């Protein structure tokens, strides 16, 4: 056992995701590298302690000259990162096209209009081809880094073909795949034209992980209904070969937030915000500006709340931070204008010369600002229409040990399964129900707030990112690769 632990302590983990944890920007002959924000990055930074980690992925820039590619590769090496280079057409067809226009909406139950979907089918074949080619490019880079004994962990819907490409290159390679989004009901999944090929590719992995038991069950039933394979409590069986499928709920690094609250910088910012919002309850939303996050629904619920509860006007404000993403996609531009229009209307209806009910920011915040905002908030509103997990709710809980604020949480987020007992669960499609939840959250007695918070805090501090990664990788280590099994037989 001890020897095994020692072996694991020095084991190399190759983490493969579409995006590297750093974004690169060119400055002449040099590269400016910035740590990118996001759930996956913060979660995986925790795993470093137990494994020697190497990251493989796209750096978010297209580099056309060999000199530039070499210098970027060199700069990234100092951060333990290895770049995959994609050309413009691949980024357009694989990333904007197949990943973001096909898989992302489908996995989040976002129905495209029949017209849009029909128009999309014309380019679907070439996008799918680009998707497979891009996955092969990732595989080539992984293979160039791979040493015997390494474990390879593939992430997310961008890389469903990667396990297959890797196993074709080396059947002995230990390969795991984890999905950060929901996996939809098989009734939704089976409308995808390439449904079988994608499932078969994922099934070549040794371990397949999801955030919740429901997503794992949806995946297994897609395999049984579409591929005719056998689903077992352990996973999916194909002619005696079992692919393990299980739930591994992600977490955050709570200490990072708890310690930040003790720093002078955050304390100073907390003071500033408190005096700025004095005499007012603060509600908060922190989301990427994405259609899955239910931002318009949240705003409409707040509007209805103000309409029905005039005694709360000028006594509560909503701070909504919405980081723009995928800004070149038409649907996202439409969402931005829709959100701006609703915010304008509500501020126009309920604002006064000295008070605006909604503070809406279209930008990302620095870590210390985010921590301070979480700490002074009375009610956090997470109204996702679908969300794999939702780490914002975890981060809020980590920062609320003093205030013990209320978490209003969509029942369609993965987090509803882990924080459901402490949060107030809502259906984001029911605007009236949400407006009542807002009122009840603002009026909740301290005793109840404490009880609910303690429940959530205990979960967030016990189910950390580190524990998530350790569990996944150690289970992956324990799987017996099919090729090994054949030699044992
Ligand atoms: P996301 O959809 O990005 O992640 P989430 O899990 O909430 O959603 O993580 C967002 C991260 O970005 C958080 O760490 C948050 O602090 C940060 N962030 C958001 N807005 C910010 C802002 N304005 N300024 C600074 N930082 C900001 C995907 C899935 C989720 C899943 C994660 C991890 O969609 O369902 O939980 O991956 O698996």
From TrEMBL:
The keyword Transmembrane does not apply. This is alpha,alpha-trehalose-phosphate synthase (UDP-forming). It comes from Sphagnum troendelagicum. The lineage of its organism: Eukaryota, Viridiplantae, Streptophyta, Embryophyta, Bryophyta. The keyword Metal-binding does not apply. In the N-terminal section; belongs to the glycosyltransferase 20 family. Keywords: Glycosyltransferase, Transferase. The chain holds residues 144 to 632 of 1018 of the full protein.
